[in-house]
Specification:
The complex is a heterodimer of chains A (about 325) and B (about 375). Chain A has about 325 residues and is an all-alpha fold. Chain A has helices at about 10-50, 55, 70-105, 105-120, 125-150, 165-190, 195-205, 210-235, 240-245, 265-275, 280-315; strands spanning about 60, 70. Chain B is α/β, with parallel strands linked by helices and about 375 residues long. Classes of the chains: A mainly alpha (about 325), B alpha/beta (about 375). The interface of A and B includes residues 59, 137, 248 and 278 of A.
């Protein structure tokens, strides 16, 4: 039997280490619990006032004496906005990651990967300002006006007055913002696939694409899902850039129907109205309530992701986890 | 002889005493200046609209009285009121007076000290009209923001124009009006929607007044700067901003931001928003103002009577707790210095207003402010008396 001799004094260090670790672990749990408690108690008033109608209603009126709140348009706005952003950014990010891990010349890999990571560090207000002052006009002149003229007001998704501050612009800029996040994580995961897997595929006569599909993709699937979920998390919660670009309508007008229509997300309405909502009033409770819904949605996304990853891991033993 | 001198002296005394007393009455001494060895920092916060002016005051006051510093956080009126009612700040800035719900939570007898005024202009970006002076009435503005007037060539707008070239340009414009409003809660919105509620019963019924309201048309930009940025960039748009922002911004084409002249209350003229017309608005409303410790929730200098009164104007207020001993870290000398600083804001400080496109307070409002400031107490003791 083997024993490991401890140095003098180390039991204390061991204890200290234990308490620090427990403290750090408790901190995370305590933070989440306090968050939920605070969001719940802060929004009690609006749930009492509106009931389930707070989730399904689309009225948003904070004028004293006529108050009425419904979060439905902003829930839809968030989901549609993040959904379109994901549709654009996921294929693009996987393409970047594939190029960097499989196709690009060795010399280019590190500098390109660094550039991608650098993009992830650009603050969102920069993307927002760029979108507002530069990108918006391109979208308006080159995409929205031609599409609108081609399909007209009859087509639902291209209806409305195209002026560039709408769901489409906000989604595209959001997509640009989350590409670096998804791409850099996906690249790490693809690189982590052991070369023996690729070599085995090539040995069987696979082309580059076949090797990727048969060897790299199955091996890294769960990690890639993790990368997508991280991107989605950022898309759902992104505030600054979206607020600057989405047009910020309230009430029923914010329910997204057309791509060329201003809307509002949960994060942006909180950012817009929080500072002026009167203390202890129903308006503030409604905004906190929206925070609670956003928290629950983010939580659900994570739970679903967890199950997805677990499922994939089961079917592919030894897959790389992000 | 001596009798005559005595008589003369007595007569002089009788004549002089009342006049000196009277003149002392009218020209009451300002509050005591801060002591040279005083070292105090005042925390304040609230409205963003007066921030450039308050920041100027901070710098100038500190030059005169180096021991006194001010830290004003421009966090928004609503957040300012929150800080004020929870007694986290020595005073707060708010563009809207305290409303019924706030009054309940605020310290008893809260003082409203109007510290400056501003006008709100309806700004537009029309390629066909490159100058100020599109003519609009309150009713037409309300209809545009209600989404009832959709096109620039609507006869309701065209018929108001006296300049034939503007009328012609509007007639040829086949575009929809892109309406821009504030997306964030704001005192500017409060003043603007109060005006529309006053002049249009339709607006009052459907929307009402508030720091954020259920808009019936258009899109939102964040802050005065956000609305200005959209109007500058998007042709055929129309929005509302503080006069200072319209003056300070240029269109994409390089001309200053264009804004409309609005019909006065008397319906006799369309007025440009200037320092003079805004001051006239305050004069028109002066008789209806409450005392500083009164209820201000319905005070408005919008749509004030008078031929030269620009109709969309607003006070912005400093909110002060009249019983300063309730604040943490306050002592009598510090309270005394706060009184002096507030007094300086509404008197000497006013000379910095005009350069920053704010409207200096008319003397009648200054008087009201001074009376308000004289009500500030520490442990029940008045710090400065003003008749």
């Amino acid at each position: 039997m083997m024993t490991i001799k401890m140095k003098k004094g180390s039991p204390h260090i061991d204890k200290i280490f234990k308490y620090i670790a427990i403290g750090a672990g408790t901190y995370v749990v305590a933070l989440v619990v306090m968050l939920v408690v605070n969001l719940s108690t802060g929004s009690v008033q609006v749930w009492q006032h509106e009931g389930i109608g707070f989730l399904t209603g689309s009225d948003w009126n904070s004028v004293e004496g006529r108050e009425s709140y419904g979060a439905f348009p902003y829930i839809m706005g968030t989901l549609v906005n993040a959904g379109i952003a994901m549709l654009i950014s996921v294929p693009l990010s996987f393409g970047i990651a594939m190029f960097l891990s499989e196709l690009s010349p060795k010399l280019l890999r590190t500098p390109l990967a660094m550039v991608v990571e650098l993009l992830a560090a650009v603050p969102s207000v920069i993307y927002g300002l760029w979108g507002l002052y530069v990108f918006r006009t391109y979208i308006q002149d080159w995409i929205e006006v031609p599409l609108h003229n081609l399909f007209g007001d009859q087509s639902i998704i291209f209806a409305g007055t195209p002026f560039g501050l709408d769901i489409l612009t906000a989604s595209i800029v959001l997509a640009i913002m989350i590409v670096p996040t998804i791409a850099s994580i996906s690249r790490e995961i693809m690189i982590a696939v052991p070369n023996s897997q690729r070599e085995a595929a090539y040995m069987l006569g696979a082309t580059k694409w076949e090797a990727f599909r048969l060897a790299v993709l199955p091996y890294s699937k769960s990690g890639l899902i993790g990368a997508v979920i991280l991107g989605l998390g950022r898309a759902v919660g992104e505030t600054m850039a979206v607020t600057m670009l989405i047009g910020n309508t309230t009430g029923a007008a914010a329910i997204p129907t057309s791509l060329f229509q201003p809307s509002q997300t949960m994060a942006s309405i909180m950012a817009n109205e929080f500072a002026e909502a009167s203390q202890g009033g129903l308006h503030l409770a409604a905004l906190v309530g929206i925070g609670l819904i956003l928290f629950i949605i983010a939580f659900l996304i994570n739970v679903i992701a967890h199950f997805l990853v677990a499922k994939v891991v089961k079917s592919h033993e030894g897959a790389v986890l992000a | 002889m001596t009798k005559k001198i005595f008589l003369g002296l007595a007569l002089m005394l009788i004549l002089l005493v009342p006049t000196t007393v009277l003149s002392a009455h009218a020209e009451s001494a300002p509050p005591a200046e801060p002591d040279a060895k005083d070292k105090y920092n005042f925390n304040a916060g609230g409205a963003t609209f007066p921030f450039p002016l308050i920041d100027k005051w901070r710098v100038e006051y500190n030059k005169n009285y180096p021991g006194i510093t001010l830290n004003y956080q421009a966090v928004g009126s609503g957040a300012g009121i929150k800080l004020f009612t929870t007694k986290k700040v020595e005073f707060a800035g708010s563009d809207a007076p305290l409303q019924a719900a706030d009054i309940k939570k605020a310290p008893a007898g809260t003082l409203h000290i109007p510290e400056t005024m501003g006008a709100i202009v309806v700004t537009y970006n029309l390629p066909g009209v490159q100058t100020n002076g599109l003519l609009l009435t309150g009713d037409v503005i309300a209809k545009i923001f209600l989404g009832q007037i959709i096109y620039w060539h609507d006869p309701a707008i065209v018929h108001l124009q006296k300049d034939p070239s503007i009328a012609q340009a509007l007639k040829q414009d086949r575009n929809k009006i892109i309406v821009v409003h504030r997306s964030d809660g704001s005192g500017t919105t409060f003043a603007f929607t109060s005006y529309l509620s006053q002049v249009s019963s339709d607006w009052n019924g459907k929307v009402g007044k508030g720091t954020s309201v259920p808009w019936q048309a258009g899109m939102g930009g964040s802050g005065n700067a956000g609305v200005a940025a959209i109007v500058k960039k998007v042709p055929e748009s129309l929005g509302y901003v503080e006069l200072a922002y319209a003056k300070g911004n240029k269109m994409a084409s390089g001309i200053p931001m264009t804004y409309a002249f609005v019909q006065n209350h008397d319906k006799t003229a369309f007025l440009d928003a200037t320092v003079a017309t805004t001051a006239a608005a305050a004069k028109g409303a002066i008789s209806s103002l409450p005392a500083a410790d009164g209820v201000w929730s319905n005070v408005s200098i919008n749509d004030a009577p008078g031929p030269n009164a620009y109709p969309i104007a607003t006070f912005t207020y400093l909110l002060v707790n009249p019983n300063l001993e309730q604040l943490k870290g306050m002592d009598k000398q510090k309270a005394q210095d706060l009184v002096h600083m507030l007094y300086w804001f509404v008197t000497d400080g006013q000379k910095y207003s005009e350069k920053l496109s704010y409207v200096p307070l008319p003397s009648a409002v200054q008087e009201l402010d001074k009376k308000g400031i004289s009500q500030i107490k520490f442990n029940g003791q008045q710090l400065w008396s003003y008749p």
